[in-house]
Amino acid sequence: MPDTSLRLLRRLDTGPRGLTDTEADARSAAYGANTPAAPPPPPSWPRRCVLALRDPFTAVLLTLGLVSAFVASWGAAAVILTLVAVSCALRAAGERRADRSLAALRDLVTGTATVLRRADRTDEPRAREVPVADLVPGDIVRLGPGDLVPADVRLLRTRGLTVRQDTLTGESAPVDKEAVDAPRRFAESHLCFQGSHVVAGSATAVVVATGARTRFAAAQTAPVRRGPSAFDRSVRGISWVLVRFALLTPPLVLMASAALHGRMLETLPFAVAVAVGLTPEMLPVIVTTCLARGASRLADAHRVVVRRLPALHDLGAVDVLCLDKTGTLTRDRPVLVAALGPDGRDDPEVLRRAAVAAWWGLTLSELPAPDALDEALLTAAGPVGEEYDGVAALPFDPAHRLATAVVTGALGRHVLITKGAAEDVLDRCALPDAERHRLLALAARQAESGLRVLAVATAELPARTRPYRPEDARGLTFRGLLTFRDDLAPGAAEALRTLMGLGIEVRVLTGDHPATAQRACRDLGLTVGEVRAGGAPQAAGTPGAVTVVARCTAEDKARVVAGLRAAGHTVGFLGDGVNDGPAMLAADVGVAPRGAVDVARESADVVLGEKDLRALGHAVLAGRHSSANIASYLRVTLSSNLGNVLAMLAAGLLLPFLPMLPVQVLAQNLCFDASQLAFADDRPDPGALRRPTRLRPPAFLRFLTGFGLLNAVADLATFAVLTLAPHGGAVLDDPVLFHSAWFTENLLTQALAMLLLRSGRHLAGPRPGPVGWASAALAGAGLLLPATPLGALLGLTALPADRYLLLAVVLVPYALALTVARVRHDRRQP
After folding, report:
1. What is the percent of the chain where pLDDT is above 70?
2. Which domains does the chain have, with CATH numbers?
3. DSSP conformation class of 20
4. Which of 161, 369, 437, 704 gives the lowest tally of CB atoms within 10 Å of its CB?
5. Percent of the chain's residues with pLDDT above 90
6. Mean pLDDT of all residues belonging to the chain
7. Which one has a higher pLDDT value, 93 or 221?
8. Which residues belong to the active site?
9. What is the DSSP string of 230-283?
């Protein structure tokens, strides 16, 4: 048995006269304020720093720092722990800055609602404005044009009520609502939900749910959470491989030293230093600096707020972008496409008649509030109405889907102009059945192409003084059809073409009809590759074309996104409604405009300051820029570090002394690490920004293995040249001279690697840039530091001139080999 309005009022212990103040206060205490759940407070500064330690590299650095302190290697411990602290502080500062920027973008508006309340049961109810937060179940509220629906309500009386609920369902067209006791099965035309707003008409309704019990709140608390993002997966994959190397290196060094030379405890600091040398200590600092600078530039130049710094990398790695149609590709208003006569040809008179009806309908209405189609008509037609005098207006009737205006015609005559749904208008026209079927087919063809259709008909009647009624619109003469499409978002076409040109596949997920979504894409000049329903299995998209998934619920959108991620894609989702929240949480990176509803904005990792898709293109390029610099750092440091470690292990087995003192290893790492800060300001080659950038662990492992072995060969070649050259025995007899020569050679090879292994297909740009200058500074440190007083403190000495010539014998072939290997590697890349 359906729950009628009367039963509902009894169950809520209320009535058409509303609640008394005492009852409202009691229910407010019982149910709480009618406010959505507030977002959780941002973490404190210390908590942000502690959370940053979850990064695998940061955690292993912390461990190595503590081990260095345990073995009394205080210099190494101090440097490593300082790097950990700087990394955590930079990440915490960037995320805190993003939270402050987002708070500045929020629109915090306290609304009111019109409610019937009484001082006590004997008083007459009075309509009063109360804060939305004070509403309680059982309140009787009044809704009018432009009002936000303040809670979930059941309609008691309506008059031409239409509402937009696109933030909840994704439907772009307004929805008719009516007060009925026996709604159609699965239909909700008798209910209005918090978060929707009234387009036209008026209503009286009873509040049935407030606060956390509304459908709006339920959508906010949907239990959908993303797994690890693309950035998390990539960094963890690389991290744990290197962590294993770092943890295995000290035991191998200790066992080899003990077996061959009987050294154990004195080798422990060197073993720890070698493990530190293998670990890219600056990775957390470089990553955080690159992402923070990219996020800062985006905020300053394009008003894009990156709430979670790794999301900037994820945005650069996105290869599939899913987005909602309504409010993203299109704006929330229609525009006129054509005015067609009965023969299907253009007829401007159809537009003029419809605009006259809209003008006088607004002018003579008790509560003038143009709906979206009336606004589109008046915008397209320009000034109208001067040649007519208005007589009466019959507002839009959802039951019959018609609106009629009566104006003066010839002397003693009135003209009725009726506009509405094609089927209902044609039912009131005096037409033969064959003609009616032909016109219905004409309207259906327009609708199938994704257009909204409005029919126009007129009738001329003798003038009269008694009121007009809807039944008077009979025996009409059909005048034509008006077609409308959704107004396209400014810059959307250009932005989508840019994104697709960057190698990103676009999928439109919408609650609209497939034809409507397909039409919007075509109007944007996009090629539609495939159209399917939300529940259909997901397949690969068509390259260079947009895939449309229509009739999507919130669950469908989240399911599509999760399926794409499971297939190995990095997925971004752009949306602005409540029904987009689950999909945004399921994506690698969620994006929302500033004007999105709170749940969408709070679910987003990136917030666009303006509702402009072009800003998203800038954000993608910024993400790729940062990711390319991070990739450059990883390629250089991992290959150099691996080569140095392999060479040191080999030399440690062959030499009667340590190949390098722990303090020298630390000094070398400090010089190399300081120079690599330049990668945060590097400008990658444009070719590196034309495709999604992902830190793929297998590719990095292949790269560091190949180039690391090449680096190790150069180091061992240096060892061979120094010992086999004339007077080479002096090098073996003088550990200081050997340490100095190898220290210089290591920094020179690392400087060459920095210059030749950075991202992009061009080995060097027209100007040195930050990396070029940093490479020169690193080479200078390698050449000059051993001869300075600081070098003497480190146990180094100036090299004889002939030793520099011997180093050149190794470095020139190494540079050529590195260049050839780099060119071959780039040619194999897609």
Report:
1. 79
2. 5-31+109-213 (2.70.150.10), 233-298+625-828 (1.20.1110.10), 316-331+490-617 (3.40.50.1000), 338-483 (3.40.1110.10)
3. E
4. 437
5. 15
6. 79
7. 93
8. 324
9. HHHHHHHHHHHHHHHHHHHHHHHHHHHHHHHH---GGGHHHHHHHHHHHS-TTH
